[in-house]
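Question (not urgent): is this output format expected?
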Amino acid sequence: MTMTDILQVGTSRFLQAHADLFFDEGTPQRTVTVVQTSGDPSRARRLAALAAPDGYPVRIRGLTDGKVIDETRHVRSVRATLSTATDWDAVVVAATEASLVISNTADAGYEPRPADESRADPQAMSFPAKLALLLARRHAE
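Got this back:
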């Protein structure tokens, strides 16, 4: 797996269009590994598209100094994608090696689950439990 500066836990469009764009356009440019926590196999194509060499498009619309802006930028900061369902060991390594961890999830991800207590099956855990487990491993390293 490619070592990146930032571990992004969650695949939200907010992070894609804001954080990842800022990391791409910032100085210095930063690189990102995106982790899908839901394990939803139907999103595998989306994960692959995020790390495509040509990047993914973000449309910018609004006003700057009274002038209309309507442009598309390509975000290339995402260099790798992982899933907690299939890549847990690599997710743990990425969490311990990244210089920064960011996250975002929908409200449903915060619902407690029985697996939160046992820690035996990370994929069955809630989002906060998965994140706490990763941060504990990061702290232990």
